[in-house]
UniProtKB/TrEMBL annotation:
Lineage: Bacteria, Bacillati, Actinomycetota, Actinomycetes, Pseudonocardiales
Source organism (scientific name): Umezawaea tangerina
Keywords assigned: Kinase, Transferase
Extent of the signal sequence: none
Superkingdom of origin organism: Bacteria
GO MF terms held by the record: kinase activity
Protein name, as recorded: Aminoglycoside phosphotransferase (APT) family kinase protein
Amino acid sequence: MDARERVTEVLAGHWPSYRDVVPLGEGQDNVAYEVDGELVVRFAKHPDPAETDREARLLAKVAEVSPIPVPTPVFSVPEQGCLAYRKVPGTTLLRLADPPAALLGTVLGVYLAVLHAVPAERMADVVGVDDDPPARWLAEAAELYVPDTVPSVHRGPIESFLSAAPPPARSARVFSHNDLGVEHVLVDPRSWRVTGVIDWTDAAFCDPAYDFGLLHRDLGPAALDAALAAYGTDAPRERAVFYARCTVLEDLAYALDTGKSVYAEKSLAALSWLFPGR
């Protein structure tokens, strides 16, 4: 049975009134289809029934606490690695130029405050703990760094960062998206209103600074300042900057490995504020 036959078979049992099925995209792990412009049906390339069930339960719980729309499960077929959810409106920030960084930072800083306040016991059965220490992040960034792939003006600052001691580890963990880059934030491109947050695969109990780091990496210092101001007390600036610097090297390596130029472009642009030349 090919992929198209699989999706029509699943829809016959769970969404029999469907009219139109359009391929939506294919990644390393999943193939997705859009149904009638309102439903996304996703199939894992290597089905794991327990993981599909966990993700469906996670999305349902996130929908209960998130003040911003998230994919809401409609049905799942765990044995086929199939998960269907309502399409979230909007355009990913990854595709848009010159976003209003401070405005978005404020909205997402408030959003992270809400997520981080979710009681641990509410999510304990659907996410794990991401507790890699800063020293490991730094070591992995050093392994990914290839000097010839970055402009020479940034190499000295990068190498100084990689040779310095990492910040102290944070023992307390909070529930968070754990991958809040611009590719996972949807907006109305006319008003810049945030319309959705997608791809909760990496959600975990993690360092509260991590998602702030991704905002800093992708949207710049104005977004970080606004996000931390909106977040309130105990704003984790030092570790946020640390994660931004580590993950920009990770994103650049990913772009070179996959040929995805949009990631290379955003990573090289971010070097100007993460590793400014002297």
